[in-house]
Design goal:
Strand order of the largest sheet: 2-3-1-4-5
Low-confidence stretches: none
CATH class: Alpha Beta
CATH superfamily: P-loop containing nucleotide triphosphate hydrolases
Radius of gyration: 15 Å
Number of helices: 9
Shape: globular
CATH topology: Rossmann fold
Bound molecules: adenosine-5'-diphosphate
Number of domains: 1
Strand content: 5-15%
Largest sheet: 5 strands, parallel
Mean pLDDT: 95
Distance between the termini: 8 Å
Number of strands: 5
Length: 174
């Protein structure tokens, strides 16, 4: 099964994504993780990515879709995957559509995600970068929800509960 987790920054996608991938026995694919790893390379593209991450901007769509397409074509993704972070806008979806079976929307109010992100302390979690990323999420990523809703594959999960409760809720839909 191919599952996409979608929701604002700080909604718990990576925590839930890891659980879910383990439960479904498929890989957990996080574009954020892929880019953070790339940004540690001291030369070339790594340094460009590092700046993009620090500023809270998106890596360009063409580079992103190629990296994702390549990763999803690996043999371990044959029987499915849990995706966190792609597509992040309609253009990425147009360039490459992973053809998800299920899209799980983790719904957490903006006030709560701000609170969580401020306490997280990741290197790209400076207040200005958080604000840029949330703006991008609400403007560019959220419209994907309507697209998937129309496809009939979107399910909404209340993300405010504790980790286990949210996990149980998600399991009902896969
Ligand atoms: P967050 O959800 O808090 O932004 P992620 O780990 O999902 O954290 O992503 C971290 C960063 O990686 C993003 O701010 C962005 O720069 C980059 N990134 C992740 N996914 C994509 C994508 N699909 N397209 C472009 N950039 C991306």
């Amino acid at each position: 099964m191919k599952v996409l987790l979608i929701g604002p920054q700080g909604s718990g996608k990576s925590t839930q994504g890891r659980f879910l991938a383990q439960y479904l026995q498929v890989p957990y694919i996080s574009t954020g993780e892929i880019f953070r790893k790339l940004s540690q390379e001291k030369v070339g593209f790594g340094q460009i990515v590092k700046t993009i991450l620090e500023e809270g901007h998106l890596v360009d769509d063409k580079t992103t879709y190629k990296i994702v397409k390549d990763r999803l074509s690996q043999p371990d993704c044959k029987s499915g995957f849990v995706m966190d972070g792609y597509p992040r806008n309609m253009e990425q979806l147009r360039l490459f559509d992973p053809k998800f079976d299920r899209v799980i929307y983790l719904d957490v109010p903006e006030k709560e995600v701000m609170r969580r992100l401020m306490g997280r302390g990741r290197s790209d979690d400076a207040p200005k970068s958080i604000k840029t990323r949330l703006d991008l999420y609400y403007r560019q990523t959220r419209p994907l929800l309507d697209y998937y809703r129309k496809q009939g594959i979107l399910v909404e999960v209340e993300g405010m509960g504790d980790i286990q409760t949210v996990q149980n809720e998600i399991k009902k839909f896969v």
